[in-house]
């Protein structure tokens, strides 16, 4: 029951939160936990390896699909973002892993390595060795990871081969079409841990190893999707809605004047000749005598903006407004309104 297949991923905050996932073999699950602390500048190698840890997190446990094993996961929060994280996982009953150290996420310059279509063969191990020799702060693995194709023990081999890398370097993953062959993607969702979704789990129970999610790494926003790889798992509608909401929220966090200038069409665009930024600007110019403008979200129908209104927000027109300034304020409200309406609409859909 010794821990194996350790890998570290981001929690909800890329600077101060980390998730650890690992496996134990057998038909009985030990009560596993994560012990952690930060590495202080004065610590020696022996201190790092043997000093008593200051913090403990109890792990959650789920059966691992297709093998007699269990998947354990635990998330650390409140890490000093300037200090490396040292940790071990396991239990007194089943044994403990070695102590590993994860560097902090840089606040300024940083790098990542991106690859996919991996496997467990000789060439795959050459790639892993090359990545091990190449410094980076983040790994992005783009699907078709183990090529188990339904043979679940191959996943264990892949994780054992990747543990020296993924136990010490933050790794974020996406599924490919070959993950579909492992219980419709359930193996992927069980064996990884990822941040939550913008709208949460609307149509199902979800999984900490969600196949679509997003995260921020310093000033870069990453959106991970299945690209249809797990088309048969019944979550495509939920995924699309989460993507829409995530992009709207990400756009809202950007510089709004620049975003307004770059906008080609609003989120509800049905006819680029009638809507989009030019339409908003024209509306602002024509509405010089009006007191307010605004935005609305409709159900799609054949006629432009003719469907039932699901949500609406008014925007006051200031005496000194220009088409550009009004368009920017309308855009802010549109990006607030759209995720809220999506969330409410999906909640009602789920009840039905």
Could you please describe the fold and organization of this structure?
The chain is an alpha+beta fold and 352 residues long. 29% of the residues lie in helices and 25% in strands. It contains 8 helices and 16 strands. It has helices spanning 45-50, 122-133, 153-166, 186-191, 236-253, 256-262, 277-286, 323-351; strands at 4-10, 18-25, 33-38, 55-58, 60-63, 69-76, 85-91, 95-96, 100-102, 112-115, 138-142, 171-174, 213-217, 220-224, 292-298, 309-316. Strands 3, 4, 7, 8 and 9 form a 5-stranded antiparallel β-sheet that branches. It has a 4-stranded antiparallel β-sheet with strand order 1-2-6-5. It is globular, with a radius of gyration of 24 Å. The two termini are 44 Å apart.
State the main characteristics.
5-stranded antiparallel sheet, 4-stranded antiparallel sheet, 8 helices, globular
The total of helices stands at 8
The biggest sheet amounts to:
5 strands, antiparallel
The unreliable regions are 255-288
Distance between the amino and carboxyl termini: 44 Å
User: Strand percentage, roughly?
Assistant: 15-25%
Globally, the shape reads: globular
Short summary:
This protein has 352 residues and is of the alpha+beta class.
Fold topology:
Elements: E1 4-10, E2 18-25, E3 33-38, H1 45-50, E4 55-58, E5 60-63, E6 69-76, E7 85-91, E8 95-96, E9 100-102, E10 112-115, H2 122-133, E11 138-142, H3 153-166, E12 171-174, H4 186-191, E13 213-217, E14 220-224, H5 236-253, H6 256-262, H7 277-286, E15 292-298, E16 309-316, H8 323-351
Parallel strand pairs: 10-11, 11-12
Antiparallel strand pairs: 1-2, 2-6, 3-4, 3-7, 5-6, 7-8, 7-9, 13-14, 15-16
Helix pairs in contact: 2-3, 5-8, 6-8, 7-8
